[in-house]
Amino acid sequence: MGLIHAPLTLANPRDASVRSMQVQALVDTGALHLCLAPHVATQLGLEEFDTREVRIADSITRAVPYAGPVAV
Fold it and tell me: Do residues 48 and 65 make contact, with C-beta atoms less than 8 angstroms apart?
């Protein structure tokens, strides 16, 4: 099987002055949320408005910042 990557264009729909950006995303068909690296969220100017618990692939649960919105 193998890893599948896809090019995505991300943008901040609340702030048109922030340039959109191209990223290479790892595709996870079982994911419920989009997970962004902190530097990508910062470059897009996304606003953190909550903290949520997520379970990552190795079954560890972590509290992570929840930010957005982001247009894909």
Answer: yes
Model pTM? 0.83
CA 65 to chain centre: 11
Structure token pair of residue 42: 């910062």
Which string of b and e fits 8-31 if b means at least 16 CB within 10 Å? eebbbeeeeeeeeeeeeeeeeeee
| Spatial contact of 35 and 72, defined as CB atoms under 8 Å apart | no
Residue with tokens 């990552």: 56
**Model pLDDT for residues 27-46, shown as the tens digit of each residue:** 988 888 888 999 999 999 99
